[in-house]
Amino acid sequence: MTTECQIQRYAAYFKGWCQAFGEHESVIGDEAEISWLLGDDQVGLILPQDLNKSLYREALGKKHEVPTLRLSRDSVRIGKFEHLFLTAHDKSGFDRLRQILNTSQPLHLFLTYHFMYQQGTRIVTFSRKAPLNIIYKTIGPMNIQLL
């Protein structure tokens, strides 16, 4: 069964600006794996360096059409970007993300940072709370399909 929802996407007014992710549990992968940040009302992903630009372009780019993010227990796909979830920590991170997305509350997607991670690290953040409007501008919705 496929569940569909819509999420609002945001971009910073100025390149490099982000709000802090906040308190969380970490499920850290090695350099070639996704690291998951699990907060009360949000889930963050720190991507391996080689995946960053392609996902950002597809998920946070300012395209005219509304992108669709397809999430399954085995993979994530959006446009030309696809990543397989191969490890046990990916599965646990996906389960928490599914909980965040299976709610009637508005959902938001934006980039954050955290002082505990290497300088310049950006966290793809799915949140029930909107980001600070002094830092971020709305760039449009995105459809999400949970497969």
Fold blueprint:
Layout: E1 3-12, E2 19-20, E3 25-27, E4 35-38, E5 42-46, H1 49-60, E6 68-71, E7 75-78, E8 81-84, H2 88-101, E9 108-113, E10 123-127, E11 136-146
Parallel strand pairs: 1-9, 2-9, 6-11
Antiparallel strand pairs: 1-11, 3-4, 4-5, 5-10, 6-7, 7-8, 9-10
Q: What characteristics describe this protein?
A:
alpha+beta; 11-stranded mixed β-sheet; 2 helices
Strand content: 35-45%
Mean pLDDT across the residues is: 88
Number of helices: 2
Structural class comes to alpha+beta
Distance between the termini: 6 Å
Helicity level: 10-25%
**How does the overall form come out from the CA principal axes?**
globular
Low-confidence stretches: none
Largest sheet: 11 strands, mixed
- Total beta strand runs: 11
Q: What is the string of SSEs from the N terminus onward? A: EEEEEHEEEHEEE
Radius of gyration computed on alpha carbons? 14 Å
What is shown here, in short?
The chain is α+β, with helices and mostly antiparallel strands and 147 residues long. Helices cover 18% and strands 39% of the residues.
What features would you describe in this structure?
With 147 residues, the protein is of the alpha+beta class. Helix content is 18%, strand content 39%. The protein has 2 helices and 11 strands; from the N terminus they run E-E-E-E-E-H-E-E-E-H-E-E-E. Strands 1, 2, 3, 4, 5, 6, 7, 8, 9, 10 and 11 form an 11-stranded mixed β-sheet that branches. The longest helix is centred in the middle third of the chain and has 14 residues, at 88-101. The protein is globular, with a radius of gyration of 14 Å.
